[in-house]
Predict the structure of NnrS family protein.
Amino acid sequence: MQLLDRSKALKITPFLRLGFRPFFFLGALLAAVAVPLWLLALNGYFVDWQPTGNWLAWHRHELLFGFVGAIIAGFLLTAVQTWTGVPGLSGNLLLGLTLIWVAARLAWFVNVPEPVFLILNGLFFPLVALQMARSVWPVRQVRNYPLVLVLLVLSALNAVVLFGVVNADEALQRQAVLGGVWAVGAIMCIIGGRVIPFFTQRGLLRPHGVQAWPWLEHALLYGTLLIVLCYAGGWALQRQAAIGALFLLLAVGNLIRLARWYDQGIWRVSLLWSLHVATLWFVIAFFCMALWNFGWLANVSLAVHALTVGAMAGLILAMIARVTLGHTGRMLTPPKAMTWGFALFNLAAVSRVFLVELNYQAGLGIAVLCWSVSFAIYLYCYGPMLWKARVDGAPG
């Protein structure tokens, strides 16, 4: 039976053999194109060409639920096969899910009826959650149930954002998008806690990895989910000392966890330091949110972009660079250009979070340029790997 399954898998076009292939490629492509497009729109271009809602609504939704959503789907739909032994989504079913994602991106710029727009943009996350549930439930893999829960939370928040878009309710959009951003933060807590110490151990050939403290992992996850609830309920949109205290506790907890993972050898391996630096941005985001809630930071955008650019997109770029190598049967040594990509990306994060406070136009311009080039480097170096069969001849 195994030989039959392998034979069937090898007949599938390589691009559709596992979820990471189409969704890493398309997600990185959207990231590389959407941010420069947003900058042009911000500077007064495309006045006569508007997506559904407006450019701000599109920017908020597409960078979170489009770009980040694609990478989350690609990673989870691939990893769940390893975690459970249940075959991952592939072939025509994966093609169908991919086409839904593509159609949703196009629907913003095509004058489709409102119900069609809502269905196309609202369908993706529930389908990913359903596939995850179908994989983890039969084997009763309780440790992965929270991932299904967070995907359902993202589905609900996405629906709220879309409702805000079609009803021109900017406040509702902002509220739900910020909830969605921190829901992704909850996924980062789960996945980061699992893979970063493991990757560090394997990458540095250490005999033993850092053992997780379950109480800390649970506290960070549930604390972050509490933040999601605070945003979803609208309580976190204004400065609150109690919420600031929660952010501060989570910042300290994440810093402790990052310090436990640290090994000075990571600076020799770009696939490792990129993960650790992204996690440091995560800590910075929590600290900045605490400072804003205490009234000691004027601009909350600094904190939000430390999370969305530095931490979230930084972790994405580091993860897809490693996962693509591993799941295409290659040695875990990235192309040299990718190391420059990681460096440029972090320059983008520094520029978007800090330099814009000194010179807005220069900081934003540098951030957009470095962001787009870093994802373009990924596409150039890794795109052929995603489209071609594994080098070791295995399915997947």
The mean pLDDT is 94. The radius of gyration is 20 Å. The domain at 13-387 is CATH 1.20.210.10 (Cytochrome C Oxidase; Chain A). Residues 13 and 61 are 31 Å apart (CA to CA).
